[in-house]
Amino acid sequence: MARLIFESAEILNSSDATQGVISGIVVEGLEQTLTPDTVNLEDNRELYESYTGRIVVRTINTTFDNAGGDILASNYVSTNGTLPTEGKLRLNGKTGSHDITTATTYIMAHNDFSNGRREIVLVAQASDVSGTAALVVGNA
Length: 140
What we know:
mainly beta; about 140 residues; 12 strands; about 50% strand; five-stranded antiparallel sheet
């Protein structure tokens, strides 16, 4: 049985160029829905419109490893409901595991203090509407 073990997360632009690397992550949620989002057509038929993938990551790091900038100040992250620049969230697997990348989406983030310290929670939810997968799995 394969194990998914991640060493860092990356925020990518829509062309897969790295915008920031975050180490010290805990993956709280990783799901690819098995039930497709459906659309009812006029002739009483259903069409599978998309599948949805979602990644939720928590970190105590507040700045990017490579760029040093504040994660919550990134143009690719929305903290208050404003529309950020579209990007992708990639989980970088350790050797022997896999990398997982969302399709192009909007990344939401917030501060969380529920564990007695400041943590940043990043959420990326993507739908497969263009014929590509909502979550793409690659080799680490």
